Amino acid sequence: MEQNRREFLKASGLVAGSVILNPFTGYGFNSAVGDTIKVALIGCGGRGTGAAAQALSTKQNVQIVAMADAFKDRLDESYRNLTAKKYKNAAGATVDIKTKVDVPEDRKFVGFDAFKKAIALKDVDVVILATPPGFRPSHFEEAVKNNKHVFMEKPVATDAPGIRKVLALAEEAKKKKLNVVVGLQRRYQANYREAIKRIQDGALGDIVGGQVYWVGSSPWMKERQPNQTEMEYQMRNWYYFNWLCGDHINEQHVHNIDVANWIKNAYPTQIQGTGGREVRTGKQYGEIFDHHTLDLVYADGTTISSQCRQFEGTWNKVDEAFVGTKGRIDSFDGKKTILKDYKGGVIYAHDDKADINPYQVEHDELFDAVAKGEYKFADAERSAKSTMTAIMGRMATYSGKLIKWDEALNSDINLFPDKLAWDANPKLLPGADGLYPVAVPGKTVVI
Amino acid sequence: MYKKILNLIPVFFLCLNASAQDNFKSYTQVIGGSPQVYDMVAIPGGEYTMGSPATEKGRRPDEGPQHKVKIEPFWMGKVELSWDIYDLYAFKNMEKEMALRHPDPEKSVAKTDASTRPSPPYVDMSFGMGRAGYPAINMTQYAAILFCKWLYEKTGVFYRLPTEAEWEYACRAGSKTAYSFGDDASKLDEYAWYRKNSSSAYKKVGTKKPNAWGLNDMHGNVMEWTLDQYIPDYYAKQPAGEKFAPVTELYPTAVRGGSWDDEPADLRSAARTPSKPEWKVLDPQLPKSEWWMTSASFVGFRLVRPVKTPSAEEITKYYSPALIEDY
């Protein structure tokens, strides 16, 4: 195994900030930029570009040295945005981003195998994986194989074979002491951390029920363009195809489902639910449902209800609430993060005034650990299990059946195309009327 | 409700067709192709003293020097703009659906829709505080201006954001005190939703007492966008004849009125609030959204309509704010 550069730094007792010796030649290494943490950005959409900017805004000397995307236009736009303006770092000092984005043309990689070339670069320390989630297992695999620390966006897969792969890789990453941070940013958000720490210390007694919601409006949709192959159309409009997105219950609601699992410190043993396409029925919306409602049932019998929908013009809520034997928490929404007992007493009220943007905290903590040569973050396993919970929810609403954890996790239904190429076909194709086949509860087989 | 609209429609058409000054009365703007209406209050022109005296409790240096400002007559929204109307603009599908249910051959979807609309928000921009009857929040100043353009296309009536000077004039309603009702902050509860009485959420528009000119929620509930760049010493160095400070930088722009999350001093008629990049801190994308603030659940807006309609060129200028990308 090639020794990880950061581990080497720690093992050899070198202090971050001093001149770094190249482990292989003994010569000064990157001396022009000092102790630089080099990053490859895989997936150059708005979120990937945002994550790159956050990495560059940490206290550490971070440099983006490679970029990869399936589409050249997405990569070019991201590069333009990253090099357009000066940022302020965490200490409030102005940072000239251009000096921190060192991506010449020969380190811009485009196409389905672009990620491999970027991750394989020897001096890359950290990779940011921010493509549509269907690619996450194979990209994570490449990162772990190449001994890179990882920031990857949620969810971490779209089907059970993908989850099993991520779980196996999580073990390997742990053995290699690779830090893995996953963008379930509530885990890095102070009001959640403080309240849940107290709940897990027993402030509300045993948690015996709750509700989690992502009830909001519909996201973007990209119209089909002339001359697009089916593969390109699905890639551009990835939100509406399960091999790429996993349905909005996976892509979005996984945040709230993860909070339920966090509070329970467990994963549901079984789920049943209902869902469908009520508003968003056109052919431009692929195959995903527009609403799901679930019972998440845990081993101790606790049932937490989960709702997600994407309707316009309706009542909305993105939040979580839980009841315990001694008290309750009705909201985690900023100023309303208050633990209460049943006599109206306040057990804990979170003051969010000094809180830092959790999207930034994710990167601050990851890069701090990488710079110090510490191994602190192993988010992959729990994130894979929360992603599995969301996939299991989709299995329940698509099939209309009661789904158990083990049978869901062992499902061999693989949504990924057999071949990735612009002229290859994804598994799901539209009918003669342009409409995609959509799951029918009671008929659709999911396991 | 329907009867109320019918009664007001003649007034509305007179305003459009005759010299507006001759018929300078409050009216109700119908949003064609929907059941929504928006009450506009006639604000007479006049001269007033903008800013606060050094003796005012809670006063900040950016509120001086006090100076005389002459204001042309205009109409101002009686209440803050609600989600009911803003969502028609933000969600084209909703507008289409409404138009089917509320056919209006003169207006709405029959017109060519040239509007640029907000991108769909990733999180719920009402943050669970309520939608029907509640103030729209979290839009950028840019989005609020383009909303005015959309409404112009729908109605043929020129609407825009108030200037800081117009806003303060309308808020004061002839008063010279810290609040439109006097200096006694203990009376705020009758007029405003603010930190002490809001239970950490905005409230339905128009549920507190109006000021002397009939405007509700000028103090509290949500802060309101103005047309101005926020310049702390603008009152000292405002070029002669300039009605407002044109926006050339994304931050800060001027916001007025204080919100459900603010202390009494922030709700004063003269209090000025600069917008901040932090109001978009939870937007994880780059560039950040030009349409949504994401973390400004205390900022909304209301409309004004000047009695003297600007020229076509001026209108185009009002509706073409520079898009300043937010990195």
Please render the helix and strand layout as text:
The complex is a heterodimer of chains A (447) and B (327).
Chain A lengths: L4 H7 L25 E6 L3 H11 L5 E8 L2 H11 L4 E2 L5 E2 L12 E3 L3 H7 L5 E4 L6 H10 L3 E4 L7 H16 L4 E3 L7 H11 L6 E10 L13 H7 L11 H4 L2 H11 L5 E7 L14 E7 L5 E8 L6 E8 L2 E3 L8 E4 L4 E4 L8 H15 L7 H20 L3 E2 H5 L38
Parallel strand pairs in A: 1-2, 1-6, 2-5, 6-7, 7-8, 9-12
Antiparallel strand pairs in A: 3-4, 9-13, 10-11, 10-17, 11-12, 13-14, 14-15, 15-16
Helix pairs in contact in A: 2-3, 5-6, 6-12, 10-12
Chain B lengths: L1 H16 L9 E4 L6 E7 L2 E5 L16 E5 L2 E4 L5 H8 L1 H10 L39 H15 L8 H9 L15 H4 L31 E7 L4 H4 L15 E4 L15 E3 L24 E2 L3 E3 L5 H7 L9
Parallel strand pairs in B: 6-9
Antiparallel strand pairs in B: 1-2, 2-5, 3-4, 5-10, 6-7, 7-8
- Roughly how much helix do the residues of chain B carry, as a percent range? 10-25%
Number of strands of chain A: 17
Structural class of chain B: alpha+beta
- What oligomeric state do the depicted chains represent? heterodimer
Main interface by residue count: A-B, 37 and 28 residues
Placed side by side, the strands forming the largest sheet of chain B appear as 1-2-5-10
Q: What is the approximate shape of chain A?
A: globular
- Average pLDDT of chain A, rounded to a whole number, is 91
Largest sheet of chain A: 9 strands, mixed
| Uncertain residue ranges of chain A | 5-34
Strand arrangement across the biggest beta sheet of chain A: 16-15-14-13-9-12-11-10-17
Low-confidence stretches of chain B: 1-20
N-to-C order of helices and strands of chain B: HEEEEEHHHHHEHEEEEH
What is the N-to-C succession of helices and strands of chain A? HEHEHEEEHEHEHEHEHHHEEEEEEEHHEH
Portion in strands of chain B: 5-15%
Percentage beta strand of chain A? 15-25%
List its salient traits:
heterodimer; A: 447 residues; alpha/beta; 9-stranded mixed β-sheet; 6-stranded parallel β-sheet; B: 327 residues; alpha+beta; 4-stranded antiparallel β-sheet; 4-stranded mixed β-sheet
